[in-house]
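Researcher: Last one for today. Full complex below.
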Amino acid sequence: MDLEKTLDSQAAGSASIPSSAPAPAPAPRPSGGNSGDDYLTEMADHGEFSISGLLLWLSAIIAISATVFFWFLNSSATQDLADKTSQKDDAVAEISSPTYAALETRANQFQSAVNQLSTASKSRFSMDNFLPLLYGQVNKNVVVTTLSVDDTGKVSFSGTTDSYKSAAQQVATLKNWKIDEKNVVTTATLDSESESVESGVVSVTFSISATVDKTTALSTASVSATEGGI
Amino acid sequence: MEKKKSSTPGFIAVFLVIVAFLLSWFWIIPQYKQNKADVAQVDHELTAVKAKLDSLKTAKSTLDSLGSTVDSMFVAVPSDQDNGDIITTLEAIATANKTYIPSFQISGGSDSSGTSDQSQSTSTGAVSVSFSVSGDFAGLTGFVKSIESNLKFFAIKSATIAPADDGTFSTTLQLETYTQGDTSTISGGASADVMSTATAQ
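Model: Here's the assembly. Have a good evening.
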């Protein structure tokens, strides 16, 4: 019995905490007045974790997240580049097809033809009506030797008549030539004249230069209505 | 005894931060920037190509709608110089107006048959033709009228009329006719211009 009591008391003694034994540290708990930092500091003091380690790991996570984010951005841009390059290649292939190449050539040729016609038409001086109109301004007593016209409106006229007065009258005829109340000739000058007598007949050879106002309605004027020959 | 803290996790964290930084800074971000620049460039090119494609499609519909006008335009201003065609056309006009052309002189341009004077620039596409034509006054005026109303475009640069004693006239004419010139100098915008030209017509 004694032995059993002894064993029981020892067992009870080992289970109980002697009053002289050091008590384990109570778990610190944050009170209402203490800050979270104090709590973390206390935790760190007890070796449960370190603040610097936590910050390092947070930084690592943020850095890795940023890297992954940039990687996704880059992947997206790469994919975008591939898509657009593919679209461009398709469009270029379409343009380079024989159908479109021929079409482009035809369009360029047409445009060139239009440009040529446009430019040439602006400087063109339509003479189909002007030459008869001009010839209608030759006085009856004048024999034309040559009559030249160029597309700038310059007229050179050489002929023969019976007197100086007739040569001057020819200049006057040109100066007085009007279509729709508008003078056709802006300048007309008697460049030269010379008199000769053959078999008692006087003849005066002369040359006139004149400038025609191309803005007058030369192409629509009636030939008979403008005949000014004397 | 105080437990010794391990520094390995801290080093791993620092290593990961450094690796992530280096990876981003020296590889991913430059590549991203390059890709964005390339995308902008390709986008620009794609826009231009699409615009040209649209322009060509519009030109096609415009040319189709113009129909025979386009062919007439190519007769008026052909792509190549053909001196034989020029001479044949003028002779036909002269015959129709009972006039006569003794000779021709053609200069400028580049004859497709290789018989022309090629000393002048071909870029303008202008071909100069000089000749004399003889006949009565009505025939000459009819000749001039036919030249100017011909489908093939002729511009009379100068005309010199000289009456002869027998009542006929000899007229020396200097004409210009045109080819399309160097169409390669026309940009891709020609297609859009065709549209505007057609609209004007």
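Chain B touches chain A through 73 residues (CB under 8 Å). Chain B has two domains: 15-76, 83-110+124-178.
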